[in-house]
Amino acid sequence: MHTMNFERPLRIGMVCYPTYGGSGVLATELGKALALQGHSVHFISNTQPARLDVFLENLYFHEVSMVHYPLFEYSPYVLALTGKMVEVAREQQLDLFHVHYAIPHATAAHLAKEILASQGQQIRVVTTLHGTDITLVGKDPNYAPVVSFAIQKSDVVTAVSEYLRGETLRYFDCRKEVMVVPNFVDLLRFKPFARAGLRERFCPAGHRLLVHVSNFRRVKRIDRVLEWYRAIASFIPATLLMVGDGPELPKAEQTIKEWGMQSKVHFVGRQDPVEELCSVADLMLLPSETESFGLAALEAMACGVPVMASQAGGLTELIQDGVNGFLVSDEEQARGVQRAVDLLNNTEILDQFRRAALHRASQYNITQIMPHYEGLYAGALGRGIREIS
Ligand code: GMT
């Protein structure tokens, strides 16, 4: 892996949500890659991040313990997190915090930085904006001033797409340069798999296999996944694989029952390794209302699967319409379905789309993207710790 040389390895506090959301996945994969480069990476979160599944001697996890007290209806997580960040930074002599998802991590990082400064320890803060921390919940008037302030106070701010950078500048009093560092994928892990018999477990011969992977939140528009599938299946034999779990799952299962399509739609819950399931599919469906980047789409493409997605947000930067997938506007749903049917009916063109998807994903390999973060760390640390290559 090409990377930078520093005077010494960095000591990084990585703060993220531990669940299956894209920001936690990104943070975890980045942390693992940085640890492989020799940096010490300390994850700080309320439970062990889902993909923190390897042992490396310079990769650590520090659990935030919540304080419960009868007076609190809601325990103040941001304070518990800040306290833990201060403790870890002091004990491990951290150089910087890299916080993923602004709410509340960037606020906690600012507080921790101030507390540490008052004790004579300087630490830098790199904030990565991932999506709804800006586009949905972040701009809620209750949170917006706090998010603005935390962004301004970060030493470095990154966004995962040009779209998200634009939204940040549009909605927030940012007064900060926002650098775009896109999502990435580990191509050693995400590649076309051909596990014998896996496709056949879900999908009869002669069917096309469609897949959706998400955390089943409203923003993913699960109802539209099902509508797209039903429309496609009205033209060609097709099966749908629904991977993931979340608040919209029960409603989706109910819809499929009402449509009497239980034998053709498989809900398989959260799955690791998702790459094996993606690999056996012919097309991914991702009609999200907004998607700052669309990591699930990138991971599917790395497995050689084209993506039919909404023409929204960062998806339009990743997916090349008519080359490695389709971008479907709200007004052109029927046309989108027809294009998908035409693709699935034509094995030769489908193979072309598959190859184009693989090629596109190769431009987002972790080996290419990780050095951008290291460069930003070097910049944030300035003379504190020099990058020497
Ligand atoms: O912003 C969110 O909804 C949460 C976040 C997550 O943790 O799942 O997802 C976002 O971050 C991913 C990683 O950067 C992006 O690939 C997703 O597009 C983005 N989700 C949305 O914008 C809805």
What report would you give on this structure?
Helix 2 (77-92) packs across helix 3 (102-118). This protein has two domains: 3-184 and 365-388, Rossmann fold; 198-362, 3-Layer(aba) Sandwich (Rossmann fold). The protein has helices at residues 22-36, 77-92, 102-118, 132-135, 144-153, 162-171, 198-202, 222-233, 249-258, 274-279, 295-302, 315-318, 333-344, 347-362, 366-381, and strands spanning 11-15, 40-45, 59-63, 96-100, 124-129, 156-159, 178-180, 208-213, 238-243, 265-269, 283-286, 307-310, 325-328. With 389 residues, it is of the alpha/beta class. The strands form two sheets. It has a seven-stranded parallel beta sheet, with helices on both faces. It has a six-stranded parallel beta sheet with strand order 10-9-8-11-12-13, with helices on both faces. The model has no long low-confidence stretch (mean pLDDT 94). Helix 9 links the parallel strand 9 and strand 10. It has 15 helices and 13 strands. The site of ligand GMT has 20 residues, from helix 1 and helix 4.
Count of individual domains: 2
State the end-to-end CA separation: 14 Å
CATH class membership of the largest domain: Alpha Beta
Q: Tell me how many strands there are.
A: 13
Number of helices: 15
Rg of Cα set: 22 Å
Relative strand content: 15-25%
Give the uncertain stretches in residue-range form: none
Compute the average pLDDT: 94
Overall structural class, as computed from helix and strand content, comes to: alpha/beta
Quaternary structure of the protein? single chain
Give the ordered list of helices and strands.
EHEEHEHEHHEHEHEHEHEHEHEHEHHH
Q: Which kinds of small molecule does this entry bind, naming each only once?
A: ligand GMT
CATH superfamily of the largest domain: Glycogen Phosphorylase B
